[in-house]
Amino acid sequence: GNSVTQMEGPVTLSEEAFLTINCTYTATGYPSLFWYVQYPGEGLQLLLKATKADDKGSNKGFEATYRKETTSFHLEKGSVQVSDSAVYFCALKDASGYSTLTFGKGTMLLVSP
Amino acid sequence: EADIYQTPRYLVIGTGKKITLECSQTMGHDKMYWYQQDPGMELHLIHYSYGVNSTEKGDLSSESTVSRIRTEHFPLTLESARPSHTSQYLCASSDVAGANTGELFFGEGSRLTVL
Questions:
Q1: Is A42 in contact with B42 (Cβ distance < 8 A)?
Q2: How many Cβ atoms are within 10 Å of B16's Cβ, its own excluded?
Q3: Sign of the CA dihedral B112, B42, A43, B45?
Q4: How close does chain A come to B2, measured CA to CA in Å?
Q5: Closest CA to B53 of B70, B78, B35, B77
Q6: Distance from CA of B52 to the nearest CA of A (A)
Q7: Vertex B77, ends A94 and A43: CA angle to 5°?
Q8: CA atoms within 13 A on the CB side of B53
Q9: What is the pLDDT of residues A45-79, one digit of tens each?
């Protein structure tokens, strides 16, 4: 079956530091890949996505590249802010129209001033 | 901004009580979902619906039940709450294209505490 593995948190950084959150996946075929973000006290919201190999998703300074050869979709940001403190979920959706999203366990990011 | 609403946001209730968590969306989405989020943040799909009168169980077995009588409404009910049901419950929806592409819109969640 499908699965998503993310690095465990919390990830603790100082403001303006470089961020990487690792995500690898197992799936048949060619899934679509996502990063969702959950700010404190809120639901999840889509941060970025990539639908095919070598695609780069980007939003709000975050980027992730769909690497089929390494089955990875690592999230990066060049300079984090305190407001980026949240829980980040990597997820995949396989090509089946009836399948649902498979989420990783989430990685908490804490950014200090 | 997503138009999906959950009530109550917070609920503290005693063991054995019946509770209903409400979820409504105004986007006309056919597909709706309930996720249970444990304290470690992991998300578990417990129910989903493809449309009116359609309900399916998710990956995690749950004692809760759901109904989908109207497109916009997808309530979750626990007939007899227990402390093991203490969790955050997140409702989500998507249109057909979103369901195929994985783009879900989430509510803010209902945090249930059963004493």
A1: no
A2: 10
A3: negative
A4: 9
A5: B70
A6: 16
A7: 50
A8: 0
A9: 999 999 999 999 999 999 999 999 999 999 999 99
Chain B nearest-CA residue for A39? B108
Out of B42, B48, B101, closest to residue A32 by CB: B101
Contact A57, A64 (CB under 8 A): yes
In the numeric block, the tokens 């004692």 are attached to B63
Per-residue pLDDT tens listing for chain B (115 residues): 559 999 999 999 999 999 999 999 999 999 999 999 988 788 899 999 999 999 999 888 889 999 999 999 999 999 999 999 999 999 999 987 766 677 899 999 999 999 9
* Structure tokens given for B18: 């019946």
* pLDDT for the residue B42: 86
Phi, psi of B100 (to 5 degrees): -75, -35
| H-helix segments, chain B | 96-101
d(CA B112, CA B87): 5
